[in-house]
Amino acid sequence: ERWGRGQPLSYLDGVPVAIKGEIMIEPYQLMGGAKFKSVVCEHVTEGHLLHKLREGGAILIGVSNLQEFGTGTLGSNPNQSTPRNPYNINHYCGGSSSGSAGSVAAGFCPLAIGGDGGGSIRVPSTLCGVVGLKPTFGLLDASGMIAIAHTVGVIGPIGSSSVDMAIAMDLFLTKQGTPFDLTGLGDKSLSGIKVGIYSEFFKHADSEVVSRCEEAVEILQTLGAEVKKIVIPELEEMRIAHLCAILSEMANNLARDIDVNFWEFNLETLLVMKVGSSFSSCEYINSLRQRTRGIKILESIFKEVNVIVTPGVAIPSPKIDEKAFSHGISDGETSGKLIRFQFLANLTGIPGIVVPIGVSKSENLPIGLQLMAPWYEDGLLIRIAHALEMEIDGVMP
Q: What residues in the chain have per-residue pLDDT under 50?
C-alpha cells in the first residue's frame, strides 16, 4: 500500500531479509548455531541495523543457519543441519554465513545480513554465486551481534546484486547519520581506476578459478581500468597474525562455555578453540603488531592503486561428505583454500566485496572475484562491482 501511494519507508519496504543466527532478531532465541544457550548470547538485544531494517519496512523472515559460533568456512553444522548449495545440493554453501548466502542464492530473499571475521560473508557469497560485502571495520554498527572476534569481525550485507549492497549500505549509514558515497554508481566507465594485482598471490588458486578471474580483469580493462602489478610483502606473516588474533579471541570469549558445556559443542569447534587457546598473550600482542605493519604496507600500496583484486576463493564449492551431516567435519586443507584471499581485509580492516563472474565447466559451481579498497572506500567497491556486473549480465545461470 505504501508503494502504491508513492510513500515507501525505504527501498527495502516490503523486501524479505534473512538474518544470520549470530545476530539477535526478536522474538527468536540467539543461539549462534549451537544447541545450547551460550554465555556470549546472554543479554544481547536487537541491534542498530535490525532497527533500521524494521524502520525501513523490511520483512525480517527469520534466522539463517551458520557454522557453530561462526568458527568454520564450510558451513557444516550437525546441530541444526547443514545448508546445501542451491547450485548443487551435494555441495557446501560455505561458511560461516552459510544460510544467509544460500537463502539469497535460492531466491528466498534478495538480501541477507551476515558477519565476517575471516571471510564469513565473502566465502559463502562466492560459493553460492551472490554478492557479499565485508565493510570497513567499524563502519557499520555491530550491536546485536555476538562478540566472538571483536577486532576482526564486522556485520555486513549479502545480496543478489551490487545494487542490493548499495541500497542496504545507504539505508544503514543514512540512518546512522553518515552519508554513503555512491558517486558514479551506474557508470560503466572505469577510466582512472587503477587495479592492483599481485600475480603470485592471484594465481594461487584452482586453474579454472584463475582463468575466470583473469577474464574478469580483462573486462575491467575494457571498461577503462588500468591494471598495475603490485607486490604485497609479509602476506604469510599477516595470514598467521590473523589466525592468531581471531582464534585467540574466539577461544577467550567461549572459554566459560567450554568449561560448562564442553560436550555440547561440535567436535570441530572444540578443535578450533583448542588451537586458539594455545596462543600465548605475547603471540597475540605480536599479531596486533603485525596488523599495524600490514596497515602501513597497504597504505603504501593504495597510493599506487585504487583497488586490489584477487579470486573470491581458491576453489569452487567442496562436496559434502555424508558423515558431515551427523558428525560435522574438520578439514584444515580445504578451509585454508577457502580463506586464502580473505584474511587481509579482516586483519587490516579494509573493505572487500565479492561478485560472481561465472561457473565452473565441470560441475557448474559459482566462481567469484574479490575487490579490496582503502578504508571507507566501500562505495567505490560497489561501483566497480556494478560496472562488472553490467558487462557480464547473464553469465550466471
A: none
pLDDT for the residue 312: 98
> How far, rounded to the nearest angstrom, does the alpha carbon of residue 101 sit from its chain's CA centroid?
9
pLDDT at 186: 87
User: What's the pLDDT score for residue 395?
Assistant: 66
* Phi, then psi, of 62 in degrees rounded to 5: 140, -170
* Residue 389: predicted pLDDT: 95
Spatial distance between the Cα atoms of 87 and 110, rounded to a whole number of angstroms: 16
pTM value is 0.96
For every residue of the chain, which 3-state class applies, written as one string? Answer: CCCCCCCCCCCCCCCEEEEECCECCCCCCCCCCCCCCCHHHCCCCCCHHHHHHHHCCCEEEEEECCCHHHCCCCCCCCCCCCCEECCEEEEECCCCCHHHHHHHHCCCCCEEEEEECCCCCHHHHHHHCCEEEECCCCCCCCCCECCCCCCCCEEEEEECCHHHHHHHHHHHHHHHCCCCCCCCCCCCCCCCCEEEECHHHHCCCCHHHHHHHHHHHHHHHHCCCEEEECCCCCHHHHHHHHHHHHHHHHHHHCHHHHHHCHHHCCHHHHHHHHHHHCCCHHHHHHHHHHHHHHHHHHHHHCCCCCEEEEECCCCCCCECCCCHHHHCCCCHHHHHHHCCCCHHHHHHCCCEEEEEEEECCCCCCEEEEEEECCCCCHHHHHHHHHHHHHHCCCCCC
Q: Which residues are catalytic?
A: 20, 96, 120
Residue entry with cell 565441470? 362
pLDDT tens by residue, 322-334: 888 888 888 889 9
How far apart CA 365 and CA 331 sit, in angstroms, is 20
